[in-house]
TrEMBL record:
GO molecular function, one term: nucleic acid binding
Source organism of the structure: Undibacterium pigrum
Lineage: Bacteria, Pseudomonadati, Pseudomonadota, Betaproteobacteria, Burkholderiales
Protein name: Exonuclease
Record-linked InterPro entries: RNaseH-like_sf, RNaseH_sf
Top-rank lineage group of the source organism: Bacteria
Length: 183
């Protein structure tokens, strides 16, 4: 069964799920040859007992377009996460969660999946693009940030802090890294 790389980006109102909410998330499903076979996005209602982190709230004030985008057409987490699991199950292969950084994005998505859908199609694992870049560039982890990556890895795609835009952009980046790794 082929692997389907599901590049995922989340937008949140703080650093951890539970006390803070995932505001939106977007996923772009790619095959290894950079064929974008589907996308998913949802904007979520905030958690009832959560509150925004002051530092994150201040950052959102600098991103009015992204804020407006993630606060429209809100869904309850149970509806959104159930739809997400159903979408993943329609994809023609084994889903692999991919993010930059996976530690942050996967923490939110996994928490919401278990809490609201009762399952994770990704099991317990996620592929971290920054760690992959470290290995490809044979660099220290600190030197594996996007600013140190070869320009050839990047397509001309926007990074807008709108979850689906960023998931598509980072998915293309991942596929370019994967191609380099397989040379």
């Amino acid at each position: 069964m082929q692997e389907i790389y599901i590049s995922t980006d989340v937008e949140t109102d703080g650093p951890i799920p539970g006390p803070n909410s995932m505001l939106s998330f977007g996923s772009a499903a790619y095959t290894a040859d950079k064929n974008l076979i589907g996308t998913f996005t949802a904007n979520l209602e905030t958690l009832p007992d959560a509150s925004a982190d002051p530092g994150t709230a201040a950052w959102w004030l600098t991103q009015p377009d992204a804020w407006a985008a993630c606060r429209s057409n809100l869904e309850s987490p149970i509806v959104a996460m159930t739809r997400y699991v159903a979408w993943i199950k329609t994809l023609p292969g084994k889903p692999i969660f991919v993010a930059f950084p996976a530690g942050f994005d996967f923490m939110f998505v996994y928490w919401y999946l278990i809490r609201y859908a009762g399952e994770s199609p990704f099991s317990f694992s996620a592929l971290d693009m920054k760690s992959f870049a470290m290995a490809l560039m044979k660099s220290d982890f600190k030197k594996s940030a996007k600013k140190y990556m070869p320009k050839a890895w990047f397509d001309d795609l926007p990074h807008t802090h709108i979850a689906l835009d960023d998931a598509i952009e980072q998915g293309a980046l991942f596929c370019n890294m994967l191609k380099e790794n397989r040379k």
